[in-house]
Write a structure and sequence with these properties.
The chain is mostly beta strands and about 230 residues long. The protein contains 1 helix and 15 strands, in the order E-E-E-E-E-E-E-E-E-E-E-E-E-E-E-H. It folds into 3 domains: about 110 residues, no CATH class; about 45 residues, no CATH class; about 50 residues, no CATH class. A 5-stranded mixed β-barrel has the order 1-2-5-7-6. The termini are far apart.
Length: about 230
Amino acid sequence: MNKRGDNVAIINKVSLDDCVIGNVLDINTETRHIAVYIPKFMPGIAAGNSQVLSTRTNTSNVAVSNIEISSQIKTRNSIWIQARDFKEALPKIGSKVSVWIIDGNLKTAYWSPFNPNNNYEVLDEEKYNTLFNLQIQDTLISLSEEDTLIFDMPNSMSVVYSEDNKFKTIKITQENNYIVSESRPANPTTGMMWFKISTEELWLYKNEKFSIILTEAEIDAKIAAAIV
């Protein structure tokens, strides 16, 4: 009512060509559609959970040729829409999405993630996209986003990583764990074998020191002593 007491009509103009925000109420993982409640289009409809109501129609006195009349009308508090990108991970119920309507037709509505507050969540099984599969002998490993791949190799293996722009190189080599020399090896590692040429002695590096291993003559002597 205005100052003169005249009745004034309030018109709620809604444009279907605008981008609107919707709440996800339901998900269909097979068709990859989501049911969205749009407050701007549905101000008098309760949001809450996804609701579907069936109402019977009176078709007993209706006779229209070439028109199929359903015995029930289903109404719901959401509309089913698909993603702008078919590969987009489906959101969890309760997430918010941006909705675009093409040519003012709700049948051609599409959604995309709406995440200004970093509270948008996708389904756990779709959280990480598969990047590639790695097969080592008979073992097939599927690697997804944010996975960490660890190669656990013995100390006898040496790994050198290098990169040149987009070329990443991992070089794996076998460390020489058997040394034939006259002098004691420098920087030995546990398990290293050293054969000293002049004395024909075989040494094993363990417990941070080289220990001599029985020579062939010593073995023969022990065998002979045992026989006696």
